[in-house]
């Protein structure tokens, strides 16, 4: 829904891409369906089936009212980064793109890893930029601003973006009317801008929260 351009481009460039999903999306009791949809979407983007890792933990229910335990998420991320010898991690920023608290919890877990010095030194970490509502739905029109404001970015041509659209539409159980509008207008279907972060960045963001 958000990381499509990054996943598509990295797969196209021949990178070994892994997906770590921390919930099967069972908020409406459709977890089994959404698991299959995730696999289908990843297949469309070029991610091998064996590179998808889905976590089903009762402490991390798909629910905006449930506070996910940061330390649990941090341990899961650390385990997979080490086991798979990951050298680049891409995840949500503090805003979680859609302000979903489960998304933001992943950022805080990564922040916790930095503060506790548990992030492997070989692993470079990038967060996906959350943007304001106007930019979010500007689609291709956000390209100039994204180019100026971001040093790390993935842009898709129109023909390439159709692959991301097809991947998005694999999530049939979530394709309610407003998601069709999202597919048409959202910049995240064609543009991803990333920010490299380190401990100093994390400490500054945590100070802002305080």
From TrEMBL:
GO terms of molecular function: N-acetylglucosaminylphosphatidylinositol deacetylase activity
GO annotation, biological process: GPI anchor biosynthetic process
Organism: Papilio xuthus (Asian swallowtail butterfly)
Origin: domain of life: Eukaryota
Gene3D superfamilies listed in its UniProt record: LmbE-like
Name used for this protein in its record: N-acetylglucosaminylphosphatidylinositol deacetylase
GO cellular component, one term: endoplasmic reticulum
EC number: 3.5.1.89
Similarity comment text for this entry: Belongs to the PIGL family.
